[in-house]
Design goal:
Keywords: Signal. Helix content is 77%, strand content 0%. By secondary structure, it is mainly alpha-helical. It has one domain.
Length: 47
């Protein structure tokens, strides 16, 4: 019933990287925040 650990760790790592990349972008102006978040979300999604 439980998914394979190797498969579950991959998305977890991507989420961790996204969370770590989010803090530095948060302080940025609201106009740049969505744009920066969108650009940061593209690389992991493509990979």
């Amino acid at each position: 019933m439980t998914p394979p650990r190797s498969t579950s760790r991959r998305p977890a790592a991507l989420l961790a990287l996204g969370l770590l990349a989010a803090p530095p972008v948060a302080p940025a102006p609201p106009a740049l925040s969505p744009a920066a978040l969108a650009r940061t979300a593209e690389p992991p999604a493509a990979a």
